Every structure is written in structure tokens, then in C-alpha cells.
Amino acid sequence: MSGTAFADLRRRLAVPEQDFAGVGRGCHIYGAGGFGRRIARELVRLDVPVLGFVDRTGHERSTVDGLPCRHPDDLGDAEIEGSAYVHGLMNHYVPSRSLSEWAIARGFTQVLFPTDLYTIPGFSLDNYWLAPPAATLDRLDDIEALHDRLGDAESQALLLALLDYRLSTDPRRHPELCASDAYVPDFLPIFDRPITFVDGGAYTGDTLETLLAHDVSVSDWIAFEPDERNMAALVETARRHRATLGRYTLIKAGLSNANETVQFTDGDGEASRVLGPQDFVAASTSTTDIQVVRLDDAVSCTGDVYVKLDIEGAERDALQGMEELLARRPTIAVSVYHRPSDLWDIPQIVANLYHRPRFRLRQHGHHGFDTVLYVTPN
């Protein structure tokens, strides 16, 4: 199957990339949140004319970052004529397929999605998995190797659909979601006996509550969370479920491949993260120093272990810090969307540390977010 699927894929992707055709008299960016504003700043830097934002909040605010902000219902045909639409939305909670269809129906000169913008000379935008198409196309051999390792046809089909979406960023081409079973798909061996749940990036304890709501028996909850505000919510979650849990340990630290102090964005809720030397940090972002630890050094896990890792791009380091645990072949759910190469690099890291893993891939969020690799003993 792989040979046929990837031969077809490579033929479709062999079409030469088109040069940037301009934006006519200017572009309207749909989405005045953080992602759309970053696109606007980059286009302005490159002297691409930006006419303003289109956003549902246009009735509450008339300008954003000095540019006009209009509600979509208030954007007239005369304002659209001769202009381009730029899709500036990337929110894992909300789909945006209908907005693509709206833009096409309104008659914009062209409809541009984030990956189209990389054809603009000098354009640069890093956002989770988003990257220039060439950065993905150069790794097709690695992606095909992942395809061959995936343990079921659903995972293989999802990988191809996800690749298609990443290269287009057109919401009409986004894979179907299975949002309701995030971290509890029925193929995991976590439902028939008590488990030790290692919660990497525990946030407020939301994943624990998902497990309990699906009748998973948690005999030991070991939660790692470096953010101060999130930890306060974790304490409350533990208190609320104290009668249900066998025991719990809340550790105010992140997971990594070393025991050290690192810089961290705090107060960003579920998006708080360890900062690398190349990471973009907005001027308004609050940072602090936190402790990160190797899991193998921090705790000793017993029984049937289920590890969840959703730690904003630090997943590969965390895996390398739990070699002893991985040698015992626990069940794992690890996010593979925080950085472009996580999708193919993280499975390889697991394969190097885990004897005969079985891989399955599931998509739990919109806009390419919440892509999770599930690992079980084969």
C-alpha cells in the first residue's frame, strides 16, 4: 500500500511551485487574533499592501495594530473588488472551512492561505507545525517510513490527509477529527485494569478528568506542571477527585532530558512553554525560570503505566529523559504538532528507545493541532 500511496502523492507534489502573484490593490486578513496579526506585521515588513483585518469582533473594535478592522457583514463589494483574501486563523478549537467558502463566494481576486505566503520573497513565519512546503517535501522519505510503521489503515490515511493539509493550509482539505476520544481511544490498553498515569504537561488536570469520565481507573496520578497558575488549578482538581484516585503526586517542574533550570513563558495557560534560543517571544510575554527534570530521575513508576506528553515542543527531550521507563514499554500518547518535524522525528526517537512499538495516529483538533501519536507494545 505504501508504494502506491506515496507514488501517487509524489506525482501530485511534483508540480512546480508558482511564483507569488501579488495581492492586487491590497489584502484583507481574516482573523485579528495573534496569528493574523503576526501575518500582518510580516506582510507590512515586506511592503505587501494590507488593507486591514476582517474579524467577528469588528463591531467592538475599529482598528487593530493601527489597521482597520471590519466585521465580515460590513465588508462591501467595492472594498473587496481587486483585493486578495488572506486566511489568518489558526485555532484548534474552531473550524474555518466555511470562511474559505465565504471568501470564494465573495469574489476576492485570490484566496491565499498561510503556506501560499511563503512564495513571497523573504516571508518568514514560525507557528507550531507551520513551515514552508519545501521543509516538508524534503522529508518525504522520512514521512513514508512513518507511514510504513503505522499500525492501522486509519492512521495511514490520516497521515496522507494531514500532509495534504499542511502543504495547503486550506481548511477545506483538513482531515476529519476524532475529538471526543482524545487520550482515550478504545484501542488503548487502559480500560481493564488500574493504571499509573504520568501526566506530562498536566495543565489543570483536564486529561485526568477525561480518563475518569471514561471509567479509567487511575491508581496513581503523577502530574508534571511548571506553570504557577496551572499548578494552583491542579491542586484543586486533585482535591475534587481525591476519593476516586488511589494516590497522586503533583510536581512543579517540566520534563526534559536533563535536570536543570530553563526559561519559560508563564501565565499562558495551556500554551506556556520552555523557550529555546530561536523561539519567537512577543514583547508582552512574561517569562520566568523553571526547573525541568528527567522523568527517570524524578519518579519511579510501578504497575501498568500510561504516559501523556503534551508539553509545547519539549516532547522529544522528555522522551530522551525517560529511557528506563520506555524500556518497560508503557502506553504512550505524545503530541506531534508543536514543531514541523515532530510528526516524523518523534516516532523515530520512540523507535530507538522502545522495543517493537505499535504506532497509531489520531487527529483531535482543528487547523492541524492536537495530532497525537499513540504507542503501545506490538
Fold and architecture overview:
Helix 6 (140-149) crosses helix 13. It is globular, with a radius of gyration of 22 Å. The longest helix has 16 residues, at 153-168. With 378 residues, it is α/β, with parallel strands linked by helices. 31% of the residues lie in helices and 21% in strands. A seven-stranded mixed sheet has the order 9-8-7-13-14-16-15, with helices on both faces.
Biggest beta sheet attributes: 7 strands, mixed
**Helix and strand run:** HEHEEEHEHEHHHEHEHEEEEHEHHEHEE
* Portion in beta strands: 15-25%
Write out the strand line-up for the largest beta sheet, numbering strands in chain order.
9-8-7-13-14-16-15
Low-confidence stretches: none
Tell the overall outline. globular
Q: What is the SS-derived class?
A: alpha/beta
Q: How large, in whole angstroms, is the Cα Rg?
A: 22 Å
Number of strands: 16
Helix content: 25-40%
End-to-end separation in angstroms reads: 20 Å
Count of DSSP-assigned helices: 13
Mean pLDDT: 92
Give structural attributes.
6-stranded mixed sheet, alpha/beta, 378 residues, 13 helices, 16 strands
